[in-house]
Structures are given as C-alpha cells and as structure tokens.
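#random but structural
TW: two for the price of one
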Amino acid sequence: MLLLGIDEGTTGVKAALFDERLRPVREARREKTNSHPRPGWVEQDGEEVLAAVVEAVAELLRDAPQEVVACGLDHQGESVLAWDAQTGAPLSPIVVWQDKRSQEVLDRLADHEDEIRELSGLPFDPYFSAAKLVWLLEHEEPVQRAREAGTLRMGTVDSFLCDRLGAGFATDASTASRTQLHALGRPGFDARLGELFGVPLDVLPEVRDTVGELGVLRHESWPVELRLCGQVVDQQAALAGAGCVVPGRVKATYGTGVFVLGHTGEEVPHPAGGLLPTVAWRIGGRTEYAVDGGVFAAGAMLEWMCRELGVAERPAALAELARAVDDSAGARVLPALAGVGAPWWRPD
C-alpha cells in the first residue's frame, strides 16, 4: 500500500510515494518557469504547471511497486488564474503570490481597508488573491469575454488542477482563508468581501474540507485513477507534516521564502504583532487555526544573487563563500525582492 503526495510549489512540482508508515519510497520532480514581464510581476503558465503535475505523477505510477491507495495535493497558496469552464483552457497567466501588480487595486480600495482587515483578518497587501482576481477581471480581455458568456472560472492553482483532472471545481478552507475573500470564523467565501473587492462569487470554486473523500484525479497518461483525500496550502501541509497538530507547536519552512506557522487551536486568532490569522485545516467540518509570519524571499534571494549579481554559479556555492570570511564587515541584506512581509507588510 502506497500514498502519493503532490507538491505544487513556486519553483517546481514534486510528487512522492510513501509507504504505510510514511517512509519515503520514491519521488519525481519537474521544474517550472517563472517569468517577469514587468518589474514586480511574476507569472507562470497554467498549462505548463498542469503538465508538470501530470508528468511527475506519471513517472511514479509507471514504476510504483505497490497499489497507490490515496493521494494528497498541496499548492503555492495565493497564486491565481482564470480559465474557461467549458474547455478548461487558461484565460490568463497564473499571477504568482509574489506579484505586486494588484497594488493599484488596493490603492483604490483604501477607504475600505479597515473593514476588509476586520472581516478577513489579513493586512492590505497584494500578496493575497482577491486584488489579483480584480486585476485579471479588469485587464485581461479573455477573462472579460468569458464572464459575459457565463463560462468564467477563477481560483487558486489547486482549484484549476482539480477541475482539469476530474476532482471538481473546488478548493479547501485553508486556501480560502488566504484569498482575502473569506471571513475568518465563517464558512466559504464572504458576500461582503466579494462586494467590496468587486469579485463575483459565482466564478469561484466550492470551499470544502481539507481532508476527506474529495474526488478522483485522473489523466489519460496515468495507469490508475487516484483518490484525492487531502487538499491544502503548502505551508499548512508543512505544519501538519512537522507534527504541529496541537496548539502551541510551531514550524519554520525554508524554500522560495521562509514561512513560520504556529498552531493555535479551534479559536479564531486575532491579528497581533504583524502575524496573519489563517485556517490551518478543516476536517469533518471542524476548523483549526494558525498564525503565520512570512519572509517572501529566502531561496529566491540566493537565486537572485547568482543570476543578477553573478556572486556564484549556483546557490549552493554561496555557503562556501560565506565560510571563507570571518564576518560581513557590517554589511546587511534585507530580502525585499517581493516586498517585506511579516511583521511590517511593506509591498514597496
């Protein structure tokens, strides 16, 4: 008996098989392309991301030594796109969580900032999904045409993947809480937040539990269908994976960014100290919460130093350079390539 995990991350897709004791058996990885068409913009191609998931999973299923009985999907959180309900074709690029183009939307909504913060629990920052969705509605003609035709779907990357792979047009409660269209302590997307932002809720996915019988993933290149039993934001997946399933336990995950999450239990946490209140997961209709502090550039900063400054050929070589000196001679670096996250929340 094997379990399959799919990690749709910012820079790549990784699929991994585990045995019944959760010991790793095998993994496959596919890289993704991040494009930067303008300063502050970060995009991905939806079809490329879907293909990366399909290929990584196909590689594992071809040689799986035992039956794969269930799978789970985690994803990069706040990144969004639009697609056609009839064809499944993307109508926009994926606007990645690091992207800052939607600051113009937030500037227009400044008079409603306090109400949006109060309802969503989230700071007024282009990091979150709602303003990105508004930008797509206002600037992408294919999105506008699909809206007029009644064939528009919009959502985070997990909902796109589930829709295209047969598990339904749906997301989970942890993801909804990252959109700024979800009112903490209430189910689903919030009508008032949708009204304030100008996002029609009828184009958004169903919000369901994080764990359960969530549908079946299938593709013509896969030898078997996969029971989807978990769907969650990557950082909340890491919270559970690190064993932080009771209040007071905290994890830090280092990747493209650094994200520190602490489990707070079943009470809705109040924003404090620049930390984000967020849904950790919803299981059997019962919601548990966490607080989140994010640094937006960690591994991304190392890659930038190699690519743009030519400091080293690859990020791993930076450690060798660091060991070659006793100190930094007073130099400091603020990793603000995508703005500054917790606790300051400065997108500029």
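TW: number two ↓
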Amino acid sequence: MGTREIVIDRPIVIGIVNVTPDSFSDGGNFFDTDMAVAHAQTLVDDGADALDFGGESTRPGADAVDDPEESRRVIPVIERVRALLPNVPISIDTWKTSVAKSAIEAGADIVNDVSALRFDPKLGVLVAKKKAGLILMHSRGKLAEISSYKHSKYSGDVCDDVAEELNERASRALALGIAKESIVLDPGIGFSKTGDQSRAILRKLDKLKKLGYPILVGTSRKRTISEAIREARGLAEDAEIPTDSRDAGTAGANVIALCSGATLFRVHNVALNRAALDVAWRILRNTQRT
C-alpha cells in the first residue's frame, strides 16, 4: 500500500493531523505549519504507525476549501514531515486530484478519499498512475451533505447496503488499475448514518470483511461517540461531552471494531488508542512473549 508499505500484522493506528481552522474536534490547534509538524512527531512518538493529513473539514456546516488553499495548508507540512520522518507512511485526506498529486509529490503514500472516488473521477486515475494506496470511505450525497442524516435511509440492512456500495467503489478502483492490495475500505462511521446505524456497522464489520479488503474505522471523537455517552449517562441531547471522555469512548468503540474485523484505526489520541488496541489484540490472539 503506497511506497512505504504498511504491514497489517497487528492493529494499525493512524494519527490525525488536521491542518484546518474549523475541524470539529481540533480545528485551529495545528493550523500553523510548525505546530502541525511538531504534533506529527508527537503522534509517532506515542505509537502511530502512519499519519493522515487533512486540509478541509468535513464537519456539518464547514466552509468549502478550493484546491490552491487546501494545498497551501497541507503541502508544506507533508514536505517537512517526510524529511523528518522518512519511514512513516503518510496519508492525504482529500478528494481532489490536484491536491492528491501535490501531496504524493511531497511524500504522501496514500490517498484517503471521503467520497470513494465519487466526487472527482480523475482521482482514481492518479492513484493508479502513482501506485499509491487508496482508502475508500463510504458516504452519500454531496460534500456538504455527507456529515448529515439526509442520505441515511437504507433499503435494507445498513451493513449489507454499505458493503454493497463500497464493493462497487472498490470494483471501480480495480477497473482503473489500482492494485487490490493497495485498497482499504472505510465504512464511514458518522457519515450519511445515524448513531444507531454507525453502531450496527461497528458490531457487524464481518459483512464488510468478506469483501477481502482491510477495514479502517474512524470513530475518533465523533457524534456517535458523544451520543452513546449521553445515552449511557442519561444526559440531555445537547450536553457537552469533554474531549477526554470522547477519547475514552473512541477507544471502546475501536476495541469493538477490532473484535468485529477492523485492522486500521484513524484517531486523534494515539497514546490512548494504541494502548487499548494492543491490550485487546494480545487478549484476542493470546500472544505470548517469546
């Protein structure tokens, strides 16, 4: 998967670096290039196997970002991180061909597309040409709609429908010449799905696993985590859930996803999730020290 291959022989933790002023969780925290680079180093020190850089927020109501501005945000960071961490796989979170091209030339190995090649038809051609890795995330509708519930009505079982739709996108990628071993599927937790639907998917990832691709989940600090915490504690729907609680909830959701078949986990708090997933993995595999 990409120039720097990721060997999936244990849970793979991917650290998030949002180079944005308006991401839902940490918008503005790492908008400065120096701060973003320093944060990337911290995530790797905390146990990240790879890094995912994004320059456009997908939160509800986020402002659209044009290609030049998105590149201006992320490319200098990727260039510096690649020089600083030459062996760490880098993913660019974008659906735009021009941004992906610049990122790959700057040192990125993987393209993480929230539209699964729906928004920009040329993106798949670029990924095939550059022999990059590709993460296909399930979503529905336009960019401004994917984080809403507008397209959350499914004809049957949500897990079956998501698997079917992602299989179609993966088939498209294969037809463009992208190697199967370069493709990862992401069910898109919180995208075009209600909280109940997202939880159902996390419980039944085996339906997606049957397609034969590695599965990535991105539950980190999302609305579905906050909703579950509020329900469990009997809190009001608008009750604020602190970041540390959402991080702990994320780790819980990721352990469930691991048991269900996921192998890659995109997170904000690497240290917490690294520890939780490593312990869960050793219990599941009964791994003994040799």
